UniProtKB/TrEMBL annotation:
PTM entry text: Acetylated. Deacetylation by the SIR2-homolog deacetylase activates the enzyme.
Protein name in UniProt: Acetyl-coenzyme A synthetase
MF terms (GO), sorted A to Z: acetate-CoA ligase activity; AMP binding; ATP binding; metal ion binding
Family: Belongs to the ATP-dependent AMP-binding enzyme family.
Length: 656
């Protein structure tokens, strides 16, 4: 990026020091950075020692054949034993593992570690009786109910790799994953609750099986949890009820040990085009880094903390920071089935107050939608139990960060902005709540044991105060091992861009500020080029969101005959701003001009009721670009709500 890079984000100069008490009792101190720098492999070996291994590794890292890594070579362990049984054996069987909160207000269930041990053992025995064993791929397509976690851990327990497909994905998306993964069995439910209504899941599985079958792969069995009680088609040759085979199975099960590099799961990422990429994670290194980072970044105190991550288990955050990391650490956590606004808009804050949640982890998109509703709703609830707040999934705008800290965290709680990816498996760049003086909008620095940098087109690290591409310069334990069934695509996608340097290309743009702290700007395909100036969508979005009438903004670069690309902004107003008043578009445009500079001034601003987002909360700028360039809107199948594009295209929009 050039010197002209515009940086309203970097004008942000507030700092938040760690609370003294938290710093004094922090799990990880500043010295960890030096320890890890002095002996990276030794540092990760010590992190691995926090787990229970049945056979110790011979070698920490085998990087003889890059980019194919092996961690804790020769070691053996069982992931489910580490997440469940060992806590019971340590005398913590009575500790609640999961406070499950159903969407219907009167439904809840507390599951202790001892309960979890029995449930996972039953499920493991049932899977075995259905012919599933070590190495057999299992797909999981479920709502946010405890059985989803039982199923994942049961697979891990018997060495059957799983792929969890988000319950909101279509039959089409599920079918292609079943085929690619060669799933032998699918675990699902009749349906699930969303916004107060029961919606079906099982019919999508039936259809997906047909799709997979036409593509040449037959799924043998389907294990069905009864959740809503709705009517479902049932084929006795294929389908089996969970309550028939799991409830009657023995609650005793002896876990077998698996090699450190045994496949644990595949998570498909929604690539922008073509076939989804199946990201493979393995056993020892993945669990080591998930568990360690969860303990480190959230300063976790398993005896006293109540942790809640609002992600869905159908994406990587749910895997690493609901299932594997937190359970490996033996913490008590909340698992919530429904949407934030059901039955009313304060539901999340009510849950925090009821369960006395201490550590809360969510996404900027959620925070911005609460900002839109105004602080009156959270202000009705006592959230004084909170001590640490986390953010993941997108860059968090300084405005959203400040609001989160102030309104949700009562101006006491550090906010940890955690950068990572499906591919990295665990958090890579983040402040440490007891060490770092946080800057709103910055993910700060690579965690101890992780090495990240920002490089230019030639792969040369940029000086402080400049921008470029985010890279990871050394292998890390929870790194993806390959793309399922496609080693070449793994090499091409991540390791070719900076092949000479041997750097992992993350696909994100970033800046190093004058202190060397990192500001992740979003995917490099979200970088615009307007009259030769590199502009980041995030910077302009941040400028828009800093206007008092704006709740959320998405910016795209649309082809422009004069400037190459031009800035087009889609804006959701805050509820108390009404329709924004006459001249709102000009008002916002002028605001961007004063915040960043005339070059960043949008060509067009559209006021919209909603933005198109994937189920993991990422804005689908591709679709907005279609609207901005007046094309027919492309494929919307991965949208959380497919009607949104109709609303936007139907001209509910005001423009400059
Ligand atoms: C965990 C997860 C990965 C992409 C990543 C980046 C964006 C995630 C971020 C962030 C800025 C953060 N991203 N966390 N950008 N700051 N704290 O989200 O995984 O779904 O694979 O997405 O998300 O663009 O490359 P995944």
């Amino acid at each position: 990026m050039t010197e002209e890079t515009l940086s309203n984000l970097l004008h942000e100069n507030r700092r938040f020091e760690p609370p003294a008490e938290l710093a004094a009792a922090a799990n990880v101190k500043a010295s960890a950075y030096d320890d890890a720098a002095a002996d990276r492999e030794g540092f990760w070996a010590a992190a691995a020692e926090r787990l229970a291994w049945t056979k110790k590794w011979d070698r920490v890292l085998d990087w003889d054949n890059p980019p194919f890594a092996k961690w804790f070579v020769g070691g053996e362990l069982n992931v489910a034993y580490n997440c469940v049984d060992r806590h019971v054996e340590a005398g913590n069987g009575d500790r609640v593992a999961i406070h499950w909160v159903g969407e219907p207000a009167d439904e809840a269930r507390d599951i202790t570690y001892a309960d979890l041990q029995a449930e996972v053992s039953r499920a493991a025995n049932a899977l075995t009786s259905l012919g599933i064993g070590k190495g057999d791929p299992v797909a999981i397509y479920m709502p946010m109910i405890p059985e989803a976690i039982f199923a994942m851990l049961a697979c891990a327990r018997i060495g059957a790799p799983h792929t969890v497909v988000f319950g909101g994905f279509s039959a089409e998306a599920l079918g292609s994953r079943l085929e690619d993964f060669k799933a032998k069995l699918v675990v699902t439910s009749d349906g699930g609750y969303r916004r107060g209504t029961a919606s079906a899941l099982k019919p999508a599985v039936d259809e997906a099986r047909q799709i997979s079958s036409r593509a040449g792969h037959d799924v043998g069995r389907v294990l069905v949890v009864r959740r809503t009680g709705q009517e479902v088609a049932f084929d006795e040759d294929v389908d089996v009820w969970w309550h028939d085979v799991v409830d009657s199975a023995s609650p005793e099960h002896t876990p077998e040990s698996f090699d450190s590099e045994h496949p644990l799961f595949v998570m498909y990422t929604s690539g922008t085009t073509g076939k989804p990429k199946g990201i493979l994670h393995t056993t020892g290194g993945y669990l080591t880094q998930c568990a360690f980072t969860h303990w480190e970044v959230f300063d976790l105190k398993p005896e006293t903390d109540v942790y809640w991550c609002t992600a869905d288990i159908g994406w990587i955050t749910g895997h690493s920071y609901i299932v594997y990391g937190p359970l490996a650490n033996g913490v008590t956590q909340v698992l919530y089935e429904g949407t934030p606004d059901s039955p009313e808009r304060g539901r999340w804050w009510q849950i925090i107050a009821d369960k006395k949640v201490t550590v809360f982890y969510t996404a900027p998109t959620a925070i911005r939608s609460f900002m839109k509703q105004g602080r009156e709703i959270p202000d009705r609830h006592d959230m004084s139990s909170l001590r640490i707040l986390g953010s993941v999934g997108e860059p968090i705008n300084p405005e959203a960060y400040i609001w989160y800290r102030l309104v949700i965290g009562g101006d006491r709680t550090p906010v940890v902005d955690t950068w990572w990816q499906t591919e990295t498996g665990a958090i890579m760049i983040s402040p440490l709540p007891g060490v770092t003086a946080g800057k709103p909008g910055s993910a700060m620095t690579a965690l101890p044991g992780v090495s990240a940098d920002v490089v230019n087109d030639e792969g040369v690290p940029v000086p402080h105060g400049s921008g470029g591409y985010l890279v990871l310069t050394s292998p890390w334990p929870s790194m993806l091992r390959t793309i399922w069934g496609d080693d070449q695509r793994y090499i091409d996608t991540y390791w070719s861009r900076f092949r000479d340097q041997g750097f992992y290309f993350a696909g994100d743009g970033a800046k190093k500020d004058e202190d060397g702290d990192l500001w992740v700007l979003g995917r490099v395909d979200d970088v615009m080029n307007v009259s030769g100036h590199r502009l980041s969508t995030t910077e302009i979005e941040s400028a828009l969101v800093s206007h008092p009438k704006v709740a959320e903004a998405a910016v795209v670069g649309a082809t422009d005959p004069d400037t190459g690309q031009a800035v087009v902004a889609f804006v959701i107003l805050r509820e108390n701003a009404g329709d924004g008043g006459e001249g709102i578009a000009k008002e916002l445009s002028d605001h961007v001009r004063t915040q960043i500079g005339p070059i960043a001034k949008p060509r067009q601003i559209m006021i919209v009721p909603e933005l198109p987002k994937t189920r993991s909360g990422k804005i689908m700028r591709r679709l907005l670009r279609d609207v901005a360039e007046k094309r027919e809107v492309g494929d919307t199948t991965t949208l959380a709500d497919s009607t949104i594009m109709e609303l936007i295209s139907a001209g509910q929009a005001t423009s400059t």
